Known about the structure:
The protein is mainly alpha-helical. Helix content is about 80%, strand content about 0%.
Amino acid sequence: MKKILLLLVFCSVLLQANNYSDAMRAYRKGDFNKAKVFFELSAQKDNTVHSRYMLGRMYLNGEGVTQNIHI
C-alpha cells in the first residue's frame, strides 16, 4: 500500500512539472500564446504560485496578451 501511495505522489509531481516546464520553454522561445495556455493549465490544475506569477508578468508587460497594469 505504501508503494502505491508513493507512486501516486511521484506521478502527481511529474504531471505538475510538465505544464509549468512546457510553459517556461514556450515563454523563453517567445511563443507567448502557447506559454499562456500552459501557465493557465498549471495555475488551475497544479495550483502553482510560479504559474500565477508568470501570468501576472505577462499581463503586466503585454506579452501575448492585452496589457493590463491595473492593480
